[in-house]
Amino acid sequence: MLQTPSGGAGHGAAATDSGLMSIGTVLNVLRDEFPEVTISKIRFLESEGLIEPQRTPSGYRKFSSGDVERLGHVLRMQRDHYLPLKVIREHLDAVERGEAVQLPVMGRPRDGKDVLGSTDTPTVARIGRAQLLAAADVDESTLEEWESYGLIAPLEDGAYDAEAVTVASLVAELGRFGIEPRHLRVMKAAADREAGLVDQVVAPLKRHRNPQTRAHAQARTKELAALTVRLHAALVKTALGVRLP
Fold first, then answer.
1. Cα separation of 160 and 148, whole Å?
2. CA Rg, the chain, in Å?
3. Please, are residues 158 and 147 in contact by the beta-carbon 8 Å criterion?
4. What pLDDT was estimated at residue 198?
């Protein structure tokens, strides 16, 4: 079984008892460390072979504490190291076989392929269009509508940032409350302005000739992004005049 750092998702899973957990329980365990994780994201990671939960005779997923530990590792490596799922799967499989392996780092793409090695600017985990449709559980016309409002956009090679799965699932959830994609343009515009502000702050670091300074820009970007998200959430709560979790 994989060993997780104390205080992480694995720690929370252990505290729930050794019995099997429903996907809803797993979601609650993971959200302490990964507040943006969704049921759609967990299902997507299962479809990619990252986890293999048991199934009840009626088809419901049941997760062991080991499954949750592995999920925590996957989400952590996506968040902190920008590793593609294929690389993450191979790494975790090697660890579970008892092999002494170092965490791989993705280099810049070369001739359309990811290159393993050291880098200042890690690549972003990507998924294909069909994978995004399956993970979000939407049809082609719905995705096209979201794209027309700029809520989701493909990368230059036609693939999508893996974070698009989270965006898609949240847009779908809001839709169930009658909030349509056209209503979300103001949120997209606000997010773009916030991202622009962060980019403005870290731009001098990114242009620096020292590789360590450029690497520091990545950490600073994550830190500023987390702070802006927290501020945005606090401002929305204040404007609504209610206490939210």
1. 15
2. 19
3. no
4. 86
Sorted by sequence, the CB contacts under 8 Å of residue 113 that are 6+ apart come out as: none
pLDDT for res 104:
54
Nearest residue to 161 via CA among 221, 225, 82, 90 = 82
CA 208/CA 115 separation, integer angstroms: 23
Task: Name the average pLDDT for the chain.
Answer: 77
Give me the phi and psi of 143, to 5 degrees please: -65, -40
Please report the pLDDT score of residue 180 as a whole number.
Answer: 92
- The predicted-structure confidence for 121-136, as pLDDT tens digits, reads as follows 444 567 788 888 887 7
* pTM, full prediction: 0.50
DSSP string for residues in 122-180: PPPPEE-HHHHHHHHT--HHHHHHHHHTTSS---TTS-EETHHHHHHHHHHHHHTTT--
- Residue 87 token pair: 């690389």
Q: Which amino acid is at 151?
A: L
E strand or H helix at 218? helix 211-240
Question: In this predicted structure, what is the pLDDT of residue 25?
Answer: 92
- The residue ranking higher by pLDDT, 90 or 103, is 90
Closest Cα partner for 116 from 105, 103, 129? 105
Residue 61, H or E segment: strand 61-62
| CATH 1.10.1660.10 segments of the chain | 9-96
Domain spanning 9-96 has what CATH number? 1.10.1660.10
Q: What is the residue-wise DSSP string for 16-55? A: T-SS-B-HHHHHHHHHTT-TT--HHHHHHHHHTTS---EE
| Residues 33, 72: Cα–Cα separation, whole Å | 9
